[in-house]
Write a structure and sequence with these properties.
5-stranded mixed β-sheet; 197 residues; 60s Ribosomal Protein L30, Chain: A; 6-stranded mixed β-sheet; alpha+beta; 11 strands; 23% helix
């Protein structure tokens, strides 16, 4: 029977989709837009690349379980545009991650949160990175969660590595033309064309 603490979200990945990271000596599990992952194994590291998106890293230091999400837009999905991938939106991404972490044995009052991302990587009238940052900080405050770290804003993308079992997180800045950041920019522009008149 599978370990229920090893949960994947939004777009499930088959077992073994991760890869061994020799720098961290850990099994790296990548997630992308609208995905989340919860696990408790100390040798598992969840990774993602962020531009204007935000990732929340959540950890219970007693149960030694945690998880990470990756959302593109603040707030909650409205109507049809959010139906296929609600976890692209901050509210759904945060609610889903917290539910999964507590289902895996975490206690909500003990949860520690670290927030990353929200850079201004798209030159447009709307600063979606700043909107994501404002949403994430407000969500954590309203939910009564303990914010133990943050690395938000700026103009550079980030590669994020998080160990859910220990709560350790590492960030590396990336150039705007890095593959993951460029993919996010393309996705955001496509979404704006689809939603805006």
């Amino acid at each position: 029977m599978a370990d229920r603490s090893d949960r994947r979200g939004a777009h499930p990945r088959p077992s073994g989709t991760g890869y061994f990271d020799p720098d961290f000596k850990a099994n790296a599990i990548p997630i992308t837009l609208g995905e989340w992952r919860v696990c408790r194994r100390p040798d598992e590291m969840v990774t993602t690349v962020l531009g204007s998106c935000v990732a929340a890293c959540v950890h219970d230091p007693v149960a030694r379980v945690g998880g990470m999400n990756h959302f593109l837009l603040p707030g909650a999905p409205a109507g049809a545009e959010g139906a296929h991938s609600p976890c692209r939106y901050g509210a759904a991404a945060m609610d889903t991650l917290l539910d999964a972490v507590t289902a895996a044995g975490a206690v909500r009052d003990r949860l520690e949160v670290k927030l990353f991302g929200g850079a201004r990587v798209i030159e447009a009238g709307q600063d979606i990175g700043a909107d994501n940052v404002a949403f994430a900080l407000d969500y954590v405050a309203r939910a009564g969660l303990t914010l133990t770290g943050r690395d938000l804003g700026g103009t550079l993308g980030r590669r994020l590595m998080f160990f859910p079992a220990t709560g350790r997180a590492y960030r590396r800045f990336m150039k705007a033309d890095a593959a993951g950041v460029a993919q996010e920019v393309t996705h955001w522009r496509r979404l704006r064309r689809a939603v805006l008149p």
